[in-house]
């Protein structure tokens, strides 16, 4: 297949590109290499696939409508995986406009490109953040998610609604993936594992929000990528049992689907830190702080639909995943 990956220099996108190229797909990867975090890390991720004959890298903003239209018209993709987004809950409090530009305007350009060029399947990144104020655990894709607590979460919920509209109006098959706290080698420097590792090795205190009582469904990068590929290969079909009298949020009379991808095993933040300390051989000095605006105390994914429909369940333990991250970090930064 010929696949477009947006956000191809990102944490998930770069590793997905490698896996698709390995199995023989042709990949066009677009990324704007912005400075939300270290562009050199993004370039290093891209370098891992740059010389592959099946890979084309383009430096593009997905909110650039004419350029995006030209890329879609030129390449005629079989499938699209939209991972480009302005990420981060806390940054959305400081710069909300960046989230509208990329996550809403940019996603509309992706939808239009798919619609006008007969793309067979659009897979796009949603987020566990859409569950917002929900407290019923584990979070289910069949539950209502109308109470986001950050503009980042609101844009991801909006993506799901926009995708459904295109599935309904134009029969464009779309699959939304609600990712739960992704971690692992080549990860994002703005996320906890990366921040903690850098500060612990430097002998600096780490900020531990919600006094370490957070529980997160930490999901290892390889599990995420496997889930993306399995859903990409499975084009969603309309649900013949769907009814407007009792609407199901995860399916539709249109070719539309939503899945959780999480480890299905929430871990308390303090345990996560203990595992990291053991891998680093060094104790952390902790600066205990209250819950931050926009954050939720717990995440826990019900992945039953993913298991039933694709036969796959993420299962990498935090102990194994953190150890692999630390090995990568020490090698990459020569520490």
What does this protein look like?
The chain is α/β, with parallel strands linked by helices and 335 residues long. 40% of the residues lie in helices and 16% in strands. The protein contains eleven helices and 13 strands. The chain has helices at 11-22, 39-47, 65-75, 91-94, 96-116, 151-170, 192-202, 221-232, 269-280, 304-310, 318-332, and strands spanning 2-6, 26-31, 55-59, 79-82, 121-127, 174-179, 182-183, 206-208, 215-216, 219-220, 256-261, 267-268, 286-288. The strands form four sheets. It has a seven-stranded parallel beta sheet with strand order 3-2-1-4-5-6-11, with helices on both faces. A two-stranded parallel sheet has the order 7-10. Helix 9 (269-280) packs across helix 11 (318-332). 45% of the residues are buried. The model has no long low-confidence stretch (mean pLDDT 93).
Number of helices: 11
Low-confidence stretches: none
Distance between the termini: 40 Å
* Major pleated sheet: 7 strands, parallel
C-alpha-based Rg, rounded: 19 Å
Structural class: alpha/beta
Q: How many beta-strand segments?
A: 13
Based on the model shown, name its key terms.
335 residues; alpha/beta; two-stranded parallel sheet; 13 strands
Structural topology:
Elements (H helix, E strand, L loop, with lengths): L1 E5 L4 H12 L3 E6 L7 H9 L7 E5 L5 H11 L3 E4 L8 H4 L1 H21 L4 E7 L23 H20 L3 E6 L2 E2 L8 H11 L3 E3 L6 E2 L2 E2 H12 L23 E6 L5 E2 H12 L5 E3 L15 H7 L7 H15 L3
Helix pairs in contact: 1-8, 3-5, 5-6, 7-9, 9-11
């Amino acid at each position: 297949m010929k696949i477009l990956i947006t956000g191809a220099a990102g944490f998930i996108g770069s590793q997905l590109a490698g896996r698709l190229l390995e199995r023989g797909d042709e990949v066009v990867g677009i990324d704007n290499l912005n400075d939300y975090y270290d562009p050199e890390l993004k370039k290093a991720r891209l370098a891992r696939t740059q010389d592959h004959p099946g890979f084309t890298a383009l430096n593009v903003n997905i909110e650039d409508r004419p350029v995006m239209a030209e890329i879609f018209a030129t390449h005629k993709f079989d499938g699209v995986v939209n991972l480009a987004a302005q990420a981060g809950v806390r940054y959305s409090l400081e710069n909300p406009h960046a989230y509208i530009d990329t996550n809403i305007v940019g996603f509309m350009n992706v939808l239009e490109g798919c619609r006008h060029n007969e793309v067979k399947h659009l897979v796009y990144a949603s987020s566990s953040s859409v569950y917002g104020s929900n407290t019923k655990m584990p979070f289910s894709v069949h539950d209502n998610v109308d109470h986001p607590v950050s503009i980042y979460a609101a844009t991801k919920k909006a993506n799901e609604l926009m995708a459904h509209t295109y599935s309904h109006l134009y029969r464009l098959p779309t699959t939304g993936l609600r990712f739960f706290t992704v971690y692992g080698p080549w990860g994002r420097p703005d996320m906890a594992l990366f921040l903690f590792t850098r500060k612990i090795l430097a002998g600096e205190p780490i900020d531990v929000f919600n006094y370490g009582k957070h529980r997160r469904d930490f999901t290892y990068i390889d599990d995420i990528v496997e889930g993306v590929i399995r859903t990409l290969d499975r084009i969603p079909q309309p649900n013949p049992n769907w009814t407007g009298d009792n609407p199901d949020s995860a399916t539709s009379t249109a070719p539309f689907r939503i899945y959780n991808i999480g480890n299905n095993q929430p871990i308390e933040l303090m345990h996560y830190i203990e595992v990291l300390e053991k891998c680093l051989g060094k104790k952390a000095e902790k600066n205990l702080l209250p819950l931050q605006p926009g954050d939720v105390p717990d995440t826990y994914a019900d992945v039953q639909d993913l298991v039933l429909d694709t036969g796959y369940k993420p299962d990498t333990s935090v102990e194994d995943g953190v150890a692999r991250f630390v090995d990568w970090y020490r090698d990459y930064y020569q520490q």
